[in-house]
């Protein structure tokens, strides 16, 4: 088993330097980077071959880390109980984006997809990084998801700056994606 202290520090160094990392999520391996670094996000999108217009998910240790990106005032009180009762967990909520949230994160939308995770490795990464990370499945767009570090390394090789070799969270499906305002399910 890898040293849990040394490995996130290397991943954090990669994130702080504008790199892209592969890391475990609740169900699949993800590609991540600093959401505030446009060059890092563009690198991630190029690796994944994903158009910027589709928008991205942010994953965080706690809701406070997401407040910079979410227009919290637009979320009605009656919706909050549903949202917060399902976090931390594998539920991604699409929320109104803050005006300052960059288009390289929201794409063509005025909303942002966010998740507060319960995966211990991701929580530790976000705690040490001090903010959320971009979270998108570690695969080329339209290709099968990556379920192992070995597969990730064969898929991405040195295009990724660091591989976090820790276990997946044990879920059989990627996170459910729901609209926080309407409850509409985008991915079940």
From TrEMBL:
Keyword ATP-binding included in the entry's annotation: yes
One record GO biological process: regulation of translational fidelity
Main localization (coarse): cytoplasm
Residues of the YrdC-like domain: 5-188
Positions in coiled-coil regions: none
Keywords: ATP-binding, Cytoplasm, Nucleotide-binding, Nucleotidyltransferase, Transferase, tRNA processing
Source organism, top-level taxon: Bacteria
GO MF assignments: ATP binding; double-stranded RNA binding; L-threonylcarbamoyladenylate synthase; tRNA binding
Subcellular location: Cytoplasm
Reaction(s) this enzyme catalyzes, per UniProt: L-threonine + hydrogencarbonate + ATP = L-threonylcarbamoyladenylate + diphosphate + H2O
Pfam families listed in its UniProt record: Sua5_yciO_yrdC
InterPro entries from the UniProt entry: DHBP_synth_RibB-like_a/b_dom, Sua5-like_dom, TC-AMP_synthase, TC-AMP_synthase_SUA5
E.C. number: 2.7.7.87
Protein family: Belongs to the SUA5 family. TsaC subfamily.
GO cellular-component term (any): cytoplasm
Keyword Nucleus: no
Gene name of this polypeptide: tsaC
Source organism of the structure: Pseudoalteromonas lipolytica
Name of the protein: Threonylcarbamoyl-AMP synthase
Reported function: Required for the formation of a threonylcarbamoyl group on adenosine at position 37 (t(6)A37) in tRNAs that read codons beginning with adenine. Catalyzes the conversion of L-threonine, HCO(3)(-)/CO(2) and ATP to give threonylcarbamoyl-AMP (TC-AMP) as the acyladenylate intermediate, with the release of diphosphate.
């Amino acid at each position: 088993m890898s040293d849990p202290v040394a490995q996130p520090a290397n991943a954090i160094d990669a994130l702080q330097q504008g790199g892209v990392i592969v890391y475990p999520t609740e169900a699949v391996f993800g590609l991540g980077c600093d959401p505030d670094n446009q060059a890092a996000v563009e690198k991630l999108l190029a690796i994944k071959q994903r158009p910027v217009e589709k928008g991205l998910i942010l994953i965080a240790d706690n809701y406070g880390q997401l407040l910079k990106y979410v227009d919290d005032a637009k979320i009605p009180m009656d919706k909050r109980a549903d949202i917060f009762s399902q976090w931390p967990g594998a539920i991604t909520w699409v929320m109104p984006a803050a005006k300052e949230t960059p288009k390289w994160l929201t794409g063509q939308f005025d909303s942002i997809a966010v998740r507060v995770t319960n995966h211990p490795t991701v929580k530790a990464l976000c705690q040490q990084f001090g903010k959320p990370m971009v979270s998108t499945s570690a695969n080329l767009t339209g290709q099968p998801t990556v379920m192992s570090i070995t597969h990730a390394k064969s898929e991405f090789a040195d295009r990724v700056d660091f591989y976090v070799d820790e276990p997946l969270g044990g879920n059989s499906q990627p996170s459910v994606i729901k609209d926080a305002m309407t409850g509409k399910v985008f991915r079940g």
